[in-house]
Design brief:
The protein is an alpha+beta fold and 83 residues long. Helices cover 30% and strands 22% of the residues. The protein has three helices and five strands; from the N terminus they run βαβααβββ. A hairpin with a 2-residue loop joins β3 and β4.
Length: 83
């Protein structure tokens, strides 16, 4: 599965995406946090991101209950202001 990082999360990660092996969104987020453990900013931004799974917002659903399949794409969108 692919995790895509946007805006300040992309800056904190130093790249736009990671390809991981994860069964649930919770697993994917834990793997991303571990992969970027050297960036405290990454973890702080990750904590406030909106999650979109295969084009559908995850909302407040339990991340451990959102299953991923081979080829899933999880987009992580930090809060941002526009004008």
């Amino acid at each position: 599965m692919t995790l895509r990082y946007w805006a300040s999360l992309r800056a904190a990660a130093g790249r736009g995406e990671d390809v991981l092996d994860a069964a649930t969104v919770a697993d994917a987020l834990a793997a991303a946090r571990a992969a970027h453990a050297d960036s405290p900013r990454f973890g702080a931004v990750l904590d406030v991101c909106s999650v979109v799974v295969d084009g559908t917002p995850a909302g407040r659903r339990n991340r451990a209950e959102i299953r991923l399949v081979d080829g899933s794409v999880v987009e992580l969108l930090p809060p941002f202001a526009g004008g």
